[in-house]
Specification:
This protein is about 35% helix and about 15% strand. Strands 6-5-4-7-10-13-14 form a seven-stranded mixed sheet, with helices on both faces. A four-stranded mixed sheet has the order 11-8-9-12, with helices on one face. Strands 1-2-3 form a three-stranded antiparallel sheet. A hairpin with a 4-residue loop joins β1 and β2. The chain starts with 13 loop residues before the first strand and ends in a 9-residue tail after the last helix. Bound molecules: the ligand CSC[C@H]1O[C@H](OP(=O)(O)O)[C@H](O)[C@@H]1O.
């Protein structure tokens, strides 16, 4: 099993068990902790599509384990069939969700690694896929810790912090991105007061962020999304920190729907708005936020959330799962290689191409 660099104080989103992938089914949280035993690529794809596993880094990690699970039945001597199936399966897993660039980043990284071994046996190729999955999994925990360390330099003991959606341990291998500084601050005895937006329609904030932080003993207050402006106006919040699914080359940020509204409110109240972003979420190949594909999800997430009808039958619904916050509303992007102004294109390139990236250590 891949051990994260540190053991977070809550259930892990995913664990490799040697011959299957254990996924904490996040659709059942917070009421039930159900662990799925995943043994096929199709099961991984379904888990990503239906948010049993979610969060940009976590779906990238899960997808590469899925690639291994989908290729592991090939035998030596079946090299032609192996090389025919690999790109098809990469594309199939990559199509599970369009917005989080970590999904394609993890799959492309693994496919590129395996490509360098084209002359090897099927057994060696399969071993290389699994080794890359475990490396990406392991690196994520270290990346999150470093994001937490940098983010902590922007926070002060006693601050009120608002966050949106879940960019915590349940969205990553261990500690999370936006939540990483909160866990580190807690370990250092700081008293931060976290305001978690419930984050309609799938409620990642109330079901996951509030769950994680409460489990860890942190001071978390749950609010409805439409209360974010009020808590800012009342002086309860001194900083906002969120995760991201994709940062474009010009610093525009795609994140859970509602993030743009929070960013505009933060700007209106003179509150710093930070985005915690592993460099695997920074996509220099996408020029601006306008080119980031925004996933639209089923109307039922809004009209019949968690099985209770709350809208008239047949009503028209618009359900984009993400929105784009223009760089001008982002105070800074916090990565594992440093803190950068989103409008500093050279700065974004620098942190992404940083010689000290975890992968190159
Ligand atoms: C560090 S996770 C980033 C991102 O992923 C979440 O989306 P979803 O729950 O739909 O996978 C949310 O946008 C988080 O901020």
């Amino acid at each position: 099993m891949t051990q994260p660099v540190w053991t977070p104080p809550h259930p892990l989103s995913l664990e490799w068990k040697g011959d299957y992938l254990a996924l904490l089914d996040q659709r059942r949280l917070p009421a039930e902790k159900v662990v799925l035993q995943i043994t096929t690529a199709e099961e991984v794809r379904e888990a990503i599509v239906h948010l049993a596993v979610r969060g940009a880094p976590a779906i990238g990690i899960a997808a590469v384990y899925g690639l291994y699970l989908g290729m592991r039945n090939f035998q030596d001597g079946e090299e032609d069939a192996f090389w025919q199936e690999l790109p098809r399966l990469v594309d199939d897993l990559n199509a599970a969700r369009p917005t989080a660039v970590n999904l394609s980043w993890a799959l492309k990284r693994t496919a590129a690694k395996v490509e360098t071994l084209r002359s090897r046996s099927v057994e060696e190729l399969k071993a290389a896929i699994l080794a890359e999955a475990r490396a990406i999994h392991r690196e994520d925990a270290e990346v999150c810790r470093r994001i937490g360390e940098y983010a902590l330099t922007l926070l002060k003991d006693g601050m009120g912090i608002l966050t949106h959606c879940n960019a915590g341990g349940l969205a990553t291998a261990a500690y999370g991105t936006a939540l990483a500084p909160m866990y580190l601050a807690h370990e250092r005895g700081w008293k931060l007061k976290v305001y978690a937006d419930e984050t309609r329609p799938v409620l990642q904030g109330s079901r996951l962020t509030a769950f994680e932080l409460q489990q860890a003993g942190l001071d978390v207050t749950l609010i409805c999304d439409n209360m974010a402006g009020a808590v800012m106006k009342e002086g309860k919040v001194q900083v906002v920190i969120v995760g991201t699914d994709r940062v474009a080359a010009n610093g525009d940020v795609a994140n859970k729907i509602g993030t743009y509204s929070v960013a505009v409110l933060a700007k209106a109240h003179g509150i710093p708005f930070y985005v915690a972003a592993p460099t695997s979420s920074i996509d220099l190949g996408t020029p601006t936020g306008a080119e980031i594909p925004i996933e639209e999800r089923a109307a039922e997430e809004i009209t019949c959330g968690f099985g209770k009808a709350t809208a008239p039958e047949g009503v028209q619904v618009y359900n984009p799962a993400f929105d784009v916050t223009p760089a001008e509303y982002v105070t800074a992007i916090i990565t594992e290689n440093g803190i950068v102004d989103p409008r500093d294109k050279e700065g974004l390139r620098r942190v992404v191409l940083h010689k000290q990236t975890i992968a190159e250590k």
